[in-house]
Structures are given as structure tokens and as C-alpha cells.
Specification:
2 copies of one chain form a homodimer. By secondary structure, chain A is of the alpha/beta class. Chain A has helices spanning 23-31, 49-57, 120-129, 142-147, 149-157, 166-173, 178-187, 227-242, 247-264, 271-274, 278-292, and strands spanning 5-10, 15-21, 37-44, 60-68, 74-79, 86-92, 112-115, 135-138, 161-165, 192-196, 202-206, 209-213. Chain A is built from 11 helices and 12 strands.
Chain lengths: 299, 299
């Protein structure tokens, strides 16, 4: 559950107007390489039919995609040369502003739930509509941490995993140190805390263990939009596929998340995903294993 | 070869005045856990005898430590709450200003040479005094990249490995993207390029391979001064101990560098090193192995 958007993206070398974006699109598409997906979101009447077809061609169930009168959510942003900073140029919530997620009857037995970044009040409404999920993960953002903390804390009490970036982790916990921040966030509810650090990778805190997953180094990054959502989608998709919620299972899920994120940034929008296949994913997983290969030496 | 300093350090919670510091101290002490060390540097007549004794108690040869009239190099700095930014409050080069490194006859056959951050002209003078080193590594800083690029490039042509932080790598290469920066720096000479990213770990680029070594996550960081030099020292010490200059050997060296850096930041100055023993290093290496443990799953 999350946003579907039409994004206008400016990088130092290029620009794309009103391309398919939104957390729910990136996460669903990434997850669809591993497991069937049920999407919940809203678009306006201007949402191009080709985008819907793109999602439908994967095993992405769109029964939960509402199409309502009005315009689709739009976001515009510009990236600095090193891609680690971005400026929001424009946000038009449009139909997203009055969105109240409705879980179709056929989705109510969903075992794995990912609540992408959205008003925590709506994240709670989704949780109230799913019967007995086995594993719930959520994302959030600075806006809700600052403006709707009590609601967000109600969400955190009910999720198994939270994924957030380093700045959000610091804001939420009031701690600068990331392991300390993770500990504070654990105490708010989630047994699994994943802190995303962009091109510095992600840290998993779970059952007293830490796992450091570096980002996959790429010489040519085209557009980092959706990297975090693709990471979350790849991660949740793998967990759904295997059902293995052990720490080692989640480590593997994070690596698949890392790999999907690395593909997402290699082109604008979901364009790299369109031609992505299992063979390319397998090959990059093998490269990831080389990236972290370490055989301890005796000392 | 590098600086010995008296550092005055301010963190958010504490302050230390004129404690032992300097790249040569951190690097030598870290390396001394793995191999005998020969130090080259300069101090003034005010350099406390206890500091010299501290180094002498390890297998650190001080034949190359000059003591000259005048005051020892002093540096003062303040760290921001997250330790990733620091402000230099004061720099007094003192005897370091007119330092011309002289390699004692007994050092001339040294096989492994680490040139810590210092004027590249002096790094070249050192290289001209060692007979046939097997492996030379150097560090540098923004000041020399900007102000003495031709000299620095002469150094780079003669070293096997360069260690520098991400901002320095960007400045030196003119590229924002780190894998691209590493490629450009390779072309300047060093077969091995190590880019240090503070608490985001380090990247090794060597023989077409990349190795990502995360920093060791610590909930309590006291003072990050010397982390990079301890990393370099641990790395070089391990290479000297094993003589294994293969990519896997360098991966292991980087992990020992990471481990030594993680100890360095747990107290001010070299204080954590004073009580450090092989058992604690072994134990943290085992924890590091857990931090990166990843058993690829079939997909």
C-alpha cells in the first residue's frame, strides 16, 4: 500500500516529465520478481492506461487500485551531482490528498503487508482491515515523524519491521548514533529495524545482531528515485517467497532488496525493471557475494 | 612516516587538552599489533617523555624520530554530534613546518612503507631514501590535492596503494561517483585504491574487484580522531605480517584496519590501544565476520 505518482525528475545530465513513480509502484514491481503482489493505492482519471498495463503484466493484483475523479499525485524533484541530495521542486497531492485505503475482501488474508510511506493514520486503517498478517513492515518520512508522532507510534507498535533512512532514524529516536537510534526504535515496537543509507548501504538490527549490507557500487547511476522503495519491495518479496523470517532469512531478503534497488537506479522511472529478468538478478546477486566476500584469517 | 602531534579535542560531551595524536602515532601503534614498526617523524623538545615510552614499549623503532629545538606540532578540533563533521579550531605546525624526513640507514631496506598525510614533496623524499620497497601506500588531504597536485601525482605514480576519504577521492578525480573516481585514480598510478567513508566503512578497488568493508557499528563513540590512520596502520601491519598482497590478502588487511579503527574511536588519543590485546582484536574480528555474514540463497 502506498503512492502511485507521475514524477518529473531532473538530474545533472537529463530530465524526464511525468514518468511512472510512487512507492507502491517501485515496491510492487520489485517484489513481483519473487512473489505475487496485491497493490493498494489510488490514481486519478489521467493515469495513463499503459502504466496500469505495465503493472498488470507482472503478477500484480490491481483489485485494490482505485481510480477516482481528479488528477494523479505528482512529484517533481532535482538531484545534486552526487545523487545523495535532492530538492523537491513541486508536490501536488491531488487524488492522494483524500485517499482512504480500502482493502478488497480478496486481500484480507494477506500474510505479508508493506505499508509504504503515507500518513500513519492511513497505515493504521490498512492494518485494521487485514485479518491476521504474519509480518508487517512500514516506511515513513520526516513529515510524519515531526507532525504525527503519536499516530506513527501506534503504527510502530503493530509492525514487525520498520525501514527508514538514517536522517529519519535520527529524528524518530532523538539519537545521532545509528546503533543507539535502532535500539530506541526497537523499544517503540518493531523487532526488526532497517536503516537505509543511500549509496552507503543499509544496516539491519534484529535479535541483537547487526547486518551491514553495502549498496551495490555502480559507476553509472541515472536516477535514484524509488531506490528505497525498490529495496523494501525486493526485501518483502523475498520474505513472502520463502516465508523465512529468521535473521538469516531477513539478511538474504536485504540482499535481494539491495540488488533490486541497484537496478532501479540504472534508469529513470521503472524503466530498468521492464526488461529485468531472473538471470540478471541472479548475476548481480553473484556479484554482490563477491563484493562482500571475506574469509577470516587466523591471527 | 607522518606526524606526531599534541591534539586538543572537543566533542559534544567532553574535552581533552594536548593529548598524544598524529597520523604516525595512530598508524604505528595500530600496525604494531601485527608486525614490527619503524617510525619516521619529528617532535619538539616539549614532547612528553611518557609518549615516547608508550611507543617504545611496543615494537616501534624510534631511530627515525627526530627531536629538534622548538615546539611539537599541535592541532585542535571540535566534532559535531554525529562525529561525521569536524571543525579545525587551531593548527600550529611548529617543528613540523621545517621537517625534512631522514630515513635512518637501518630503515633503508624496509619492504612495506606507509606515507601518512604530509606534503607530497616530503613523501617523495622518503621514497628516494628507501632502497626497494615491495609495497608503498600513501594518504593525502584536500590541501595537497588542491595546492600541490603535480607533486602529489609524482607520488601516486610510485605507490601501490592510496588510501583517501570520499571527499578527497572526489576532489582528486573530479568525479562525484566513487567507482568512477577510483577508476580515474587507478590511472594516476596506484593499483589499489581504498576510499574511506567514516562510519559508512571503506571501499577497496583492486584488480577490477570491489570489496565493501562496513565500519564496525558502535553505540558509544568517544573520539574519531585517528580512525583513518589506525585503519591504514592496521591494514599495513597485517600486510607486513603476512606478505600476502593478493586481493584476498588486502581484503583481510582492510578488515584488520577496520577493527583497529573501531578500537581507536572508543577513547581519546591512543588510550584504547594502551590496554588492547590480541584476544580483544580476535573477538572483534569474529564480530565483524558476523556483521557481514551472508550465505547466498538460491533464486
Amino acid at each position: 500500500m502506498g503512492s502511485l505518482a507521475l514524477d518529473t525528475i531532473e538530474t545533472q545530465s537529463s530530465r524526464r516529465e511525468e514518468v511512472l513513480g510512487g512507492a507502491a509502484c517501485y515496491a510492487s514491481y520489485a517484489a513481483s520478481f519473487f512473489a505475487p503482489v496485491r497493490l493498494v493505492g489510488v490514481v486519478g482519471q489521467d493515469f495513463p492506461a499503459e502504466h496500469e498495463q505495465l503493472l498488470r503484466r507482472r503478477e500484480i493484483d490491481l483489485a485494490g487500485l482505485e481510480r477516482v475523479p481528479g488528477r494523479t499525485f505528482r512529484w517533481a524533484g532535482r538531484y545534486a551531482a552526487d545523487f545523495n541530495q535532492r530538492t523537491t521542486l513541486d508536490t501536488q497531492l491531488n487524488v492522494f490528498e483524500t485517499f482512504r485505503p480500502k482493502i478488497p475482501q480478496a486481500y484480507a488474508d494477506s500474510e505479508m503487508v508493506f505499508l509504504a510511506n503515507i500518513d500513519p493514520v492511513l497505515q493504521l486503517e490498512v492494518l485494521n482491515q487485514v485479518r491476521q498478517p504474519r509480518f508487517v513492515a512500514c516506511d515513513t518520512m520526516n513529515f510524519w515523524i515531526g507532525g504525527k508522532r503519536p499516530d506513527l507510534q501506534r503504527v510502530l507498535k503493530r509492525v514487525n519491521m520498520v525501514l527508514l533512512n538514517d536522517e529519519e532514524a535520527r529524528q524518530l529516536s532523538g539519537r545521532d548514533n545509528l546503533p543507539a537510534a535502532a535500539r530506541i526504535i526497537h523499544e517503540m515496537g518493531p523487532a526488526v529495524v532497517v536503516i537505509k543509507r543511500g549509496d552507503a548501504g543499509a544496516l539491519l538490527f534484529s535479535q541483537g545482531e547487526v547486518f551491514a549490507a553495502p549498496a551495490f557500487p555502480l559507476e553509472h547511476v541515472v536516477d535514484p528515485t524509488g531506490a528505497g522503495d525498490s529495496f523494501a519491495g525486493g526485501c518483502m518479496g523475498w520474505l513472502a517467497r520463502t516465508g523465512d523470517l529468521s535473521t538469516d532469512g531477513i539478511r538474504n531478503a536485504m540482499v535481494f532488496g539491495t540488488v533490486l534497488a541497484s537496478f532501479a537506479v540504472q534508469d529513470f522511472s521503472l524503466d530498468r525493471f521492464r526488461t529485468l529478468d531472473a538471470e540478471a538478478i541472479r548475476s548481480r546477486c553473484a556479484d554482490f557475494a563477491k563484493l562482500v566476500r571475506y574469509t577470516p584469517a587466523a591471527y
